[in-house]
Amino acid sequence: MTTIPTACTYDCPDACALQVETESDRIHIRGAPDHPITRGFVCGRIRRHVGRLRDPERVTTPLLRREGKWQETDWQTALDLAAEKLSAAMQEDGPASVVYQMSGGSLGLRKKLVGHFFSSLGPVTTLRGGVCDECGVAAQEQDFGMAAGHDFTDLGNSQAVVLWGKNPAATGVHLIPFLQERRRASVPIVLIEVVATETAAFVDRLVSVAPGGDGFLALSVLRLLLDSDRLDARAIARCENFVPFRDWLAGSEMQVASLARQAGVAMADVEFLAELYAQPGPVATHLGWGLQRRASGGKNLRCIDALAALSGQVGIRGGGVTYTSRRSRGLDQSFLAKKSGRTIDIASYGRDLAALRDPPARFVYIHGANPVSALADSQATAAALRAVDFVVLADAFLTDTADCADLFLPVSLMLEDPTDAVGSFGHHHVARVRQAVLPPTGVREDVWIAQQLHRRLGLTPDPWLADPAAALERMVAPWFEASGDDFRRNPTQPEIPFQDGFATPSGQMRLSTEMPTAVEVDAAYPLSFLTAKPRSYQHSQIRPQEQRGLPLCLLSPEAPGAQGLQDGQPARVVSPLGSLSVRVGLRPGMRRDVCLLPMGGWLRCGRAPNALVAAKLTDMGFGTAFYDQRVRLES
User: Fold this and answer.
1) 510 part of a folded domain
2) CATH number, domain at 468?
3) Are 98 and 225 in the same domain?
4) DSSP for residue 566
5) pLDDT for 125-159, tens place per residue?
6) Is residue 591 part of a domain?
């Protein structure tokens, strides 16, 4: 038996250190027992990963679409054709006719060299914004000058923990043991959420908030603290515009009861949270990403930042308002080619890609992504890709996006990739990634493909692309400082963010006086459409055979359209963009104004929730406002 120390590169905040044991055909993955976050266990997604490596549906030969059907080809033919199409697009219409897209299929830093290759071609078209944390990061940059979170281990100093729109039981299970330790120490754990998620089983109190009501809830608590003279004097002195903020918050239209109604919460919950945040001991606030996936998402998050800061919880051990720790913090990326061309917004990807002119898109290269499933308005995304002259997809499976591609290049997966490194956007630890198993015959690595295209284009030699290992070591030198550690704490992460001031020009926090926008109510579409990350698979990395039957749509028996329906009965969820057949799951106690489906389903399987979601930007950061979509239920 051989044991290889490595790390998980899934798009997950936990960035687990792993130990992979191999013996003959047997592969066993376990968590590194001495890692301060992983603590020897792995999530269900990783336990299923071996099956993903060996899935009989996995593609191991390049495929070329001829007359609408895939035909196997060899790597030389595939790469020659890709280079020919790429070269023709650049020579005839310029680099702007080339569209490069990478997403979070792998968070290994080595993948950055593929983007480096495309950026080195000149002003190619790239993407702006995203579907993840962009809006919230922009909000915290407005408030604090940067986004920076506390490590999970700092919860040992907390006297209360608030999980605001965060569901770690499904999205990052390695936070759960730290919460359980605090509960055993009689520290209250509070969950603020629209729907009682799996995490509700690990908390002491659930505060049910209306869809989009998070900012109003934070303001109602702040107003109550202001009226009772319980804001923190030291925190006030650290804000550059407290007086206009105070006057705005004290306005007649900002009454506690009115704000609570807009938040959809009871006054008892507002009073409870006010007592919690005003207590002497530190309160840790950990934010999820759903509350910022709205047209008013940035404003919502800035209100929560203000509550945490003005109650004295920012800049202290055991406190903070943790949204993300930024997984790339400290990396040396100075030698990588910079983006220099036009951009299209991810939030409106299909519409923007189709609208490109002077020049139009001629060559699209996609890796680590399944945009047809993952982005808003799936049908528009698919149509736009099909209209492009030549689309190359580097993936391991024939996803929805593969249905729109002209050339498919089979790539290696986690555990098969060469030496790499990964940072965390949830905690402060980084880890080295090592190849633990060989990829199937015929499969290649993403960076190898970029190397081959570079050679075929006859470009000036690129030392970093030619030696990915050297490029990686330069990139992570600030992290590992020439050590051979398998994992360690990232020394560039601030242990206590904002303890000594903020990253703003003034060194003080900036408070927002912009009121969040209430979610629009539409009588024709009375339900707020939410999608949740499942525990069993990552984003859209789900096998087609696991998508048979109707997806489960959870909603209250009292929800509009649910009356008379039985649990398990077929129904339709309808938006202005179309409809999705579902199986009804009636859940007493749910809010009557929401319905919930699992994210990641494929269009081809009739399970893509994003086919119902219109393209819409968040208020900052160019994020995607997925959760502003309104739908109705039809029997």
Assistant:
1) no
2) 3.40.50.740
3) no
4) P
5) 999 999 999 999 999 999 999 999 999 999 999 99
6) yes
pLDDT at 536: 84
As a dihedral over the C-alpha atoms of residue 563, residue 566, residue 570, residue 576, rounded to 10 degrees, the angle is 20
- For the segment 72-96, the average pLDDT, to the nearest whole number, is 98
* 516, part of any domain: no
Q: Is the pLDDT of residue 39 over 90?
A: yes
DSSP notation for 199-217: GGGG-SEEEE--TT-HHHH
What is the distance between the alpha carbons of residues 217 and 387, in angstroms, rounded to a whole number? 45
Asked if 550 contacts 582 with a C-beta cutoff of 8 angstroms, the reply is: yes
Q: Which of the listed residues 29, 53, 77 is the one where a domain comes to its end?
A: 53
Domain that holds residue 382: 63-124+333-421+435-483
Could you give the CA distance from residue 335 to residue 467 in angstroms, rounded to a whole number?
Answer: 13
Rounded to whole angstroms, how far apart are CA atoms 616 and 627?
A: 10
> Tell me, what's the pLDDT at 535?
84
User: Does residue 65 contact residue 405 with C-beta atoms inside 8 Å?
Assistant: yes
Assess whether 265 and 308 both reside in one domain: yes
Residues 380 and 463 in one domain: yes
Count of CB atoms within 10 A of residue 308's CB? 24
From 271, 287, 322, give the residue that closes a domain: 322
Cβ 372 vs Cβ 153: under 8 Å? no
Give phi and psi for 256, each to the nearest 5: -55, -50
User: Tokens standing for 178?
Assistant: 């730290």
What's the mean pLDDT in 575-590? 96
pLDDT over 90 at 199, yes or no: yes
Do 531 and 598 reside in the same domain of the chain? yes
Residue type, 67: E
d(CA 485, CA 431): 8
Are 399 and 261 in a shared domain? no
| Among the listed residues 169, 255, 264, 149, the one whose alpha carbon sits nearest the alpha carbon of residue 217 | 264
Paired sense of beta strands 527-532 and 630-634, if any: antiparallel
Give me the pLDDT at residue 24, please. 84
In the chain, the number of structural domains is 4
At 405-429, the pLDDT tens digits run 999 999 999 999 999 999 999 999 9
Which CATH number does the domain housing residue 289 bear?
Answer: 3.40.228.10
Same domain, 216 and 295: yes
The 3 state secondary structure assigned to 437-501 is: CCCCCCCECHHHHHHHHHHHCCCCCCHHHHCHHHHHHHHHHHHHCCCCCCEEECCCCCCCCCCCC
Residues 6 or more apart whose CB falls under 8 angstroms from that of 305 comprise 139, 140, 143, 144, 314, 321, 509
User: Is there a domain that residue 261 lies in?
Assistant: yes
* Co-location of 204 and 297 in the same domain: yes
pLDDT at 598 over 90: yes
CA-closest candidate to residue 416, choices 399, 440, 398, 397? 440
Over 90: is that where the pLDDT of 543 sits?
Answer: no
Are 371 and 257 found together in one domain? no
Does the pLDDT at position 25 exceed 90?
no
C-alpha atoms less than 13 angstroms from C-alpha of 222 in its C-beta half-sphere = 30
CATH number of the domain that 569 lies in? Answer: 2.40.40.20
CA proximity to 344, closest of 333, 357, 329: 357
E strands along 239-362, which residues?
283-287, 321-322, 343-345
Rounded mean pLDDT of the chain? 97
- Residue 410 has which token pair? 């089979």
